[in-house]
Fold each of these.
Amino acid sequence: MKYSYPEKTAYRRRALLLALLLAFVAIGSLLWIALHATDSETHKQNMLIADIYQDGSLLQSIALSNVEEAYRFTVTGDNGSVNEIEVRQGSIGILSASCPDKLCVHQGFISNSLLPITCLPNRLVIQIRMETSDIELPDMITY
């Protein structure tokens, strides 16, 4: 008659559970890598574009991804309104404004398209959008 030791069966169960846990971690890691892979498979680059509107018309579009050094410029309106805008690598903001409440200045710099900067008294809106550009890479190389 064969006798099985309870310690051996408990050891085998623990080893099996550990192996299953490691397998789930490995599969989960592979799925995470596949879902969060860079755009190298699609060969696309995302560019941040800041569109500056005054009175509903587009004044200027700035590619924030291409900015190397921060710079400032001033936008003046019809009624003598003035907004000083600073452009940085990947972000844009209003430094000073002639409006009474200065909410546009207090909003700070934006770097995504979630909330635009608006200066209602000066009728100025700064929106950020993502522009996807395709990079031409060969599908296949033959020799």
Amino acid sequence: MMQPMGRSASNRVITITSGKGGVGKTTVTANLSAALARLGRRVACIDADIGLRNLDLILGVENRIVNDIVDVVEGRCQLQQALIRHKAYPELYVLPAAQKRDKTAVSPAQMVRIADDLRAQFDFVLIDSPAGIERGFKNAVAPADEVLIVTNPEVSAVRDADRIIGMIELLEKRPPSRLIINRVKAEMVRRGEMLSADDVTDILSIQLIGVVPEDETVLIAGNRGMPEANSRSGQAFNEIARRLLGENVPYTHSNPSQGFFKRLTRLFSGSGARQGSVFDE
């Protein structure tokens, strides 16, 4: 099926996560995977959201699933047998999650082994993490060389992203993290009705890697199982992919900061807010 490539330091495992559900994390995973594949990179994406499984739908491979990640870890099939090759992007493969099991069916150590096997064959391994901080999150970040945190420009999503950043900082491995701000409405930002990218990065004190505009074509493309390349959001994902490859790509988003939102930084100021959100459990 696939001939293993020589292992390289550039072969990277990237976990894509969020503090809360509904911010578009799985859509980001699918579209970023497709963008990297369009740039000629071999990409494997893993759906780590065991029990739900949505990545296959957005990538349009749901009708071709025979085996899943739990079948691999429990020895019912080989890893190669569970991977599904995307028809439109021959350099893109999907490892689906199991729908009828829970997140305890895979351990962090097993996820590391799967990711390492894929790392030897692909330029990028992208892991779609479940939202939140439970077992699924621990599975997803265990093999990560880097974590991309997805948030929306709204207070509740930013607060939950802050919590996730705190959790990552507590990990023994502490992979570096960067931020993707999804579903930005430029006109609302200009009117001071939505947090700008600068507002969010000021609050979270984390490096930005991309801003994705609100774009209805993303929903249409997800329903069709075919990531969109030529829309505004498709261009944003292409820019993020190029930044992952080390290119210095300028940001094209609008960044006005309004006084009301500047005051929000005090809600998250310093490490105290982040540590409080992490240790309040």
Amino acid sequence: MVKLGSHVGMGGKEKMLGSVKEAISYNANCFMIYTGAPQNTRRSDISTLMIPEAHELMIKHSIPLENVVVHAPYIMNLANPEEEKRQFAIDFLTSEVKRTSLMGAAQIVLHPGAHLKQGSMEGMKHIVNGLKKVIENTSDLNTKIALETMAGKGTEVGVNFQELGYIINNVNSDRITVCFDTCHTHDYGYDLSDFESVLEEFDKFVGKDKISAFHTNDSKNTIGSHKDRHENIGFGYIGFDNLVNIINHPEFINVPKILETPYVTEFEGSKNKVYSPYKHEIEMIKSGSMDENVLNKIRE
């Protein structure tokens, strides 16, 4: 069975239990969460996250722990040219990896970093050194760190398969894997309408076996735009059939596919009302048929 789900929240009193309930409401069998707010370092004590209750509900609905993906916060930059800021990234990522393990998730997705005009090679060297230290700091754990493929905006590192391969080969740890983001790879310039050729290129520099998660998003931009703007499934430039082909690819049936598509906002009365697209997008993907009215169905 294909592992298909979405990003879900972890706010409110129910914390991780609420995350599981949200995923179930979308008919998802996997999901992605943050361990806390992605924009800051404030974290609730792990004992308050209702982890045992969440795990119990997951068992009831046949969602294994390996189907839980954590996303690292955006405030860390292992490629930063300033040593003090790199050390902050190492320390905070270490603590996030430990929290990920305590929550029972198998992996944490990480944006590799931005070189901030020092050059990609210097940035990659810093990332390699930082990841080696995080792996050493968490040597008693099996938690994977999945480097996300990036779109190439600004001074991002990890924007192509060569850069990811350099980082992974130099860290040289089985715990460093890849989260393949369809929007990002398309926006960088890879043609996902020929996924087999893209996969062949990826395998040459990184290795197909390193893919431990997918972010399956359409793109608002033409190929090679380097902009990173997600679109709802089938409503962007990648296209429904190409995305379904990737989601159902036989080599990755057991790899979680996570939707990060935009919420739908509609003005009602005197305020905006926001709708999640995930239940309907998951239904559409499972059916294998593009529903042109899917976003309207969300509002019903």
